[in-house]
Amino acid sequence: MEPAVSGSPQPDPSPSSPSTSAAPPPQPSRYESQKRRDWNTFLQYLRNHKPPLTLARCSGAHVLEFLKYLDQFGKTKVHVSTCPFFGHPDPPSSCPCPHKQAWGSLDALIGRLRAAYEENGGRPDSNPFAARAVRIYLREVKDSQAKARGIPYEKKKRKRKPTVTSVRLDVDLTSNITGDGINRDSPATSGDVLPLG
Q1: CA pair distance 16, 30, nearest whole angstrom
Q2: Most buried one in 4, 47, 59, 131, CB count within 10 A?
Q3: Which helix (H) or strand (E) holds 33?
Q4: How far is Cα of residue 41 from the mean position of the Cα atoms in its chain?
């Protein structure tokens, strides 16, 4: 320790001292961690592309190449139209049909990459993950997998809160009711307006 100007010693600002250690940063959410992994995977794909691509030169066509590349790692059996199990959700035996990425996985992946692109400085109007071709491809994958697997994809309906409607009913119990059940003194039949209270 070096003496201070006033002559009193100053504390040693070493990183091992408990008073100067900062709390560890909070763990990122599962979504944020997955988004970062997906983004790094896509950047690695661009670096390994022949010829290598920069993010600035990436288009919707390159995103489609990436999605098709990922099919080799898929775990969802998608029956071809000539397969005897085409359209059956639970086939009784195995078949040589390919495994592909499930539509829901691709859709979620594109959502994360779309967000990561903009978080990493990309402009929303030039986002290759938001390209029309990507949206069309995802829709085609969804439809073809639904037919091939015999599992329809239905949009989840949001639960609506029940609406409560209140009705005010004013009844005058002191009025005369005739034998025919009609209240002759009622404002509805007489045209008079009775005061409340």
Answers
A1: 31
A2: 131
A3: helix 30-48
A4: 20
